[in-house]
Design goal:
about 260 residues, TIM Barrel, eight-stranded parallel sheet, 12 helices, binds 1,3-dihydroxyacetonephosphate, TIM_sf, isomerase, triose-phosphate isomerase activity, glycolysis, Triosephosphate_isomerase
């Protein structure tokens, strides 16, 4: 089954509202309407930028979706500093990244939290872009497949096949994030294929073939073609190269 590629820009903690509006407009200006037939393009700005970014995208003209970088799993209440699925949905977000390695490392996010966030999102008809990936120590131990597939199992535990197939998995080896040290296409493919095999065990072949598995970690215009040529890599989750319209658009064009 041919999967539609996805290019998602994770801006991380970059861009004030005014900067976010400029970048979103620059991306929109380059965007050709019919590209939306061939690739799903997503921008993931910080929370405060979501509404302003969304406002400058005319979805009918430019099918660019907006997603958040995080969300909380409780529906409402005394959770100071957190943001609910209803809040991001009302802005017009299509979904949220969950379980990014920076959130796991700096904010103590556990596999259990990730699972609760996936469940909260799909219950609100939003999708999760579930990030998984191993540290350099785990890679050097040779245990990366077991480690990453356990993250996938934990993230989707108790999630129905119907809900899971709306979601996306992003394989982001931590040692490749922001380091300029990209995984080779073969290294990325090996783990992405194992992720799909895990999804097949959980949900069956048909569902696993329909789900998108992205690669993230120093993806750039120079390495994107070789990564996308791999059979189990269905797009990218982009950090640094998503912060400039020109390079992000080049990555989108690589999917056409
Ligand atoms: O973490 C990433 C996307 O979520 C990848 O970041 P870089 O593209 O900057 O390596």
């Amino acid at each position: 089954m041919a999967r539609k590629p996805m290019m998602a820009g994770n801006w991380k903690m970059n861009n004030t509202i005014s900067e976010a509006v400029v970048l979103t407009q620059e991306i929109s200006n380059h965007f050709e309407k019919d590209w939306g037939d061939s690739v799903d393009v997503v921008v993931c700005p910080p929370f405060v930028d979501l509404k302003p970014a969304k406002t400058v995208i005319d979805f009918d003209k430019m099918p660019i979706a907006v997603a958040s970088q995080n969300v909380y799993f409780e529906l409402k209440g005394a959770f100071t500093g957190e943001t609910s699925v209803a809040m991001i949905r009302e802005i017009g977000c299509a979904g949220s990244i969950v379980g990014h390695s920076e959130r796991r490392e700096y904010f103590g996010e556990t596999n259990e939290d990730v699972n609760k966030k996936v469940k909260a999102l799909v219950a609100a008809d939003l999708y999760a872009i579930v990030c998984v990936g191993e540290s350099l120590a785990v890679r050097e131990s040779g245990e990366m497949i077991d480690f990453v597939c356990a993250q996938v199992r934990a993230a989707f535990a108790g999630v129905s096949v119907e809900d899971a197939t709306t979601c996306v998995v992003a394989y982001e080896p931590i040692w490749a994030i922001g380091t300029g040290r990209t995984a080779t296409p073969e290294q990325a493919e090996e783990v992405c294929a194992a992720i799909r095999a895990t999804l097949a065990e959980m949900y069956g072949e048909e569902a696993a073939e329909a789900m998108r598995v992205l690669y993230g970690g120093s993806m750039n215009p120079g390495n994107v073609e070789a990564l996308l040529a791999m059979p189990n890599i269905d797009g990218g989750l982009i950090g640094g190269a998503a912060l400039k319209a020109a390079s992000f658009i080049q990555l989108v064009e690589a999917c056409l």
